[in-house]
């Protein structure tokens, strides 16, 4: 790593990164010399982690000749005989800011990133503009133009849509994840180099989609607060088989400057308390949920009621997050207690098994859509997504309807152990939390279906996945071994119904014994309804008098 301070001069070589410390008072002049004659365009870019950097063609920057941001670049269109390029850099922060800079050359047949810009300030704008929220990340960029020789006029951006125009260009959008739980500047500087040039982007990035010129040049991704992500776009000319890269842009989907809920601690205190308590109950349920039937039932009822109540109050009210979480906890407790208090009724046994199956089914379906399958274009349609999701979720209670004990033990082991994963995610970043979080985002946000939900899967995730699998298998094994010699419980709903029918038919002291069968009761009810619509018969004699 080299830092250049002498007279504010930074000597660059084409394709070589140089780190530099910038400040607010003195501009740094970046110079590249001896540019080859076959180079027609040089793309210069500078990157910092969190403080804005100003790069410009002139020492006194103007709106149309400069860019400001943490990831910014400029395109220098070279004149005939030109062999030297100069740019100026400075920071907007009073303190020194570490940044890295590089200049990348392109030839006559290479497309020019942002060469057909009509939206942003720069005439040729190779930058990717990024906005983020807690839900999604939005990137957009200006269309590219075809390459051309030094001194020639640039191809028109609007003269036809044939193969001789910019409309033949294709845009490949790439994503790259920084190491999890590492927010250091040097890590970003080292990894952003892998996403700056075409060959390194293809080697290290994940290709998410390809856009044609007919598509809008903006893309949405799911937000991952606290996780560093780099995005870039490669524009490809299929006629000449040449490519060029835009300016890579990075985000952590959080603020380094906030005192509370910053990038170092993205989980709120209320979230940590809620999921820690839930994990304790879930861990108990994982190993003892079937033996302590009411405790396991309360756990499932709490999750089921709390989930739908949180969705409801978020949709219809403007309450703050902490208030909603407290109300969700209260609603979950009430729902769990009601389920425990009424489970022994025949109808409630069916309801209990349905709720247990749905909780496990929803988690299973969420895991399926957490895989790359969830990013298939067909599932961007909400109708297709929710019908498919519901069918997969309903498979679990349908398949295990005849085996309630197995269903309950599996649900206790898998769902209970996953609550431990959610608690871990409150303290250490793990992508496994987004198995259910992305489902919640899709329910609560009407436009989340347009976002790509790819997440990193790194060392932490493999470790936590192994812990989840180990805890779940241990809990299921312990409960199956304990219950294998016990009477099946809960009882099969059909057997319970059959036993209840036989009891009522033999026990004459049971008031329900004197209740007519269901078919007879329905028939009597229909007769009563029919009598309402019959005309009233006139009073008096209706037969002829006998003479």
TrEMBL record:
<dbReference type="InterPro" id="IPR025256">
    <property type="entry name" value="TM7S3/TM198-like_dom"/>
</dbReference>
<feature type="transmembrane region" description="Helical">
    <location>
        <begin position="409"/>
        <end position="430"/>
    </location>
</feature>
<feature type="transmembrane region" description="Helical">
    <location>
        <begin position="462"/>
        <end position="480"/>
    </location>
</feature>
<feature type="transmembrane region" description="Helical">
    <location>
        <begin position="323"/>
        <end position="341"/>
    </location>
</feature>
<protein>
    <submittedName>
        <fullName>Transmembrane 7 superfamily member 3</fullName>
    </submittedName>
</protein>
<keyword id="KW-0472">Membrane</keyword>
<feature type="transmembrane region" description="Helical">
    <location>
        <begin position="348"/>
        <end position="371"/>
    </location>
</feature>
<feature type="transmembrane region" description="Helical">
    <location>
        <begin position="297"/>
        <end position="317"/>
    </location>
</feature>
<feature type="transmembrane region" description="Helical">
    <location>
        <begin position="383"/>
        <end position="402"/>
    </location>
</feature>
<dbReference type="Pfam" id="PF25992">
    <property type="entry name" value="Ig_TM7SF3_N"/>
</dbReference>
<dbReference type="GO" id="GO:0043069">
    <property type="term" value="P:negative regulation of programmed cell death"/>
</dbReference>
<dbReference type="GO" id="GO:0005886">
    <property type="term" value="C:plasma membrane"/>
</dbReference>
<keyword id="KW-0812">Transmembrane</keyword>
<feature type="transmembrane region" description="Helical">
    <location>
        <begin position="273"/>
        <end position="290"/>
    </location>
</feature>
<dbReference type="InterPro" id="IPR042502">
    <property type="entry name" value="TM7SF3"/>
</dbReference>
<dbReference type="Pfam" id="PF13886">
    <property type="entry name" value="TM7S3_TM198"/>
</dbReference>
<feature type="domain" description="TM7S3/TM198-like">
    <location>
        <begin position="276"/>
        <end position="480"/>
    </location>
</feature>
<keyword id="KW-1133">Transmembrane helix</keyword>
């Amino acid at each position: 790593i080299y830092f250049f301070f002498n007279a504010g001069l930074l000597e660059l070589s084409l394709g070589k990164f140089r780190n530099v410390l910038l400040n607010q008072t003195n501009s740094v002049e970046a110079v590249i010399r001896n540019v080859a004659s076959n180079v027609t365009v040089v793309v210069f870019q500078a990157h910092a982690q969190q403080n804005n950097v100003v790069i410009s063609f002139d020492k006194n920057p103007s709106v149309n000749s400069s860019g400001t941001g943490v990831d910014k670049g400029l395109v220098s269109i070279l004149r005939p005989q030109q062999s030297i390029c100069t740019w100026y850099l400075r920071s907007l922060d009073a303190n020194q800011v570490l940044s890295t800079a590089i200049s990348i050359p392109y030839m006559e047949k290479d497309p020019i990133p942002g060469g057909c810009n009509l939206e942003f300030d720069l005439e040729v704008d190779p930058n990717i503009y990024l906005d983020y929220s807690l839900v999604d990340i939005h990137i957009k960029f200006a269309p590219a133009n075809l390459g051309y020789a030094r001194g020639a006029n640039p191809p028109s951006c609007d003269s036809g849509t044939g193969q001789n125009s910019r409309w033949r260009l294709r845009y490949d959008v790439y994503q790259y994840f920084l190491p999890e739980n590492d927010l250091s500047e040097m890590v970003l500087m080292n990894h952003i180099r892998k996403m700056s040039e075409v060959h390194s982007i293809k080697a290290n990035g994940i290709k998410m989609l390809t856009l044609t010129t007919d598509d809008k040049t903006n893309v949405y991704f799911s937000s991952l607060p606290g996780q560093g992500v780099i995005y870039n776009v490669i524009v490809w000319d299929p006629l000449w088989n040449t490519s060029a890269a835009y300016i890579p842009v990075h985000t952590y989907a959080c603020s380094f400057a906030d005192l509370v809920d910053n990038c170092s601690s993205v989980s709120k205190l209320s979230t940590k308390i809620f999921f820690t308590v839930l994990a304790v109950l879930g861990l108990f349920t994982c190993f003892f949920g079937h033996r302590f039937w009411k405790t396991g039932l309360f756990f499932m009822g709490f999750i089921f009621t709390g989930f739908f109540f949180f969705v409801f109050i978020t949709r219809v009210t403007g309450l703050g997050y902490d208030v909603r979480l407290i109300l969700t906890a209260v609603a979950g407790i009430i729902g769990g207690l009601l389920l425990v208090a009424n489970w022994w009724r025949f109808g409630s046994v069916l309801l209990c098994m349905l709720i247990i199956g749905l909780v496990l089914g929803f988690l299973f379906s969420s895991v399926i859509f957490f895989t790359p399958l969830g990013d298939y274009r067909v599932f961007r349609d909400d109708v297709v997504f929710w019908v498919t999701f519901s069918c997969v979720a309903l498979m679990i209670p349908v398949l295990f309807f005849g085996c309630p004990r197995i269903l309950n033990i599996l649900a206790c082991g898998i769902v209970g152990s996953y609550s431990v994963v959610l608690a871990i995610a409150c303290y250490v970043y793990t992508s496994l939390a987004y198995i259910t979080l992305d489902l919640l985002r899709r329910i609560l946000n009407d436009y989340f279906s347009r976002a790509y939900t790819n997440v990193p899967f790194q060392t932490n995730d493999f470790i936590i996945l192994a812990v989840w699998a180990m805890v779940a298998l241990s809990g299921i094994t312990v409960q199956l071994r304990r219950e294998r010699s016990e009477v099946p419980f809960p009882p099969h709903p059909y057997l319970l119904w059959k036993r209840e029918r036989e009891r009522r038919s033999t026990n004459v002291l049971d008031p329900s014994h004197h209740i007519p069968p269901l078919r007879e009761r329905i028939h009597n009810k229909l007769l009563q309804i029919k009598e309402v619509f019959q005309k009233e018969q006139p009073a008096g004699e209706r037969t002829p008098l006998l003479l």
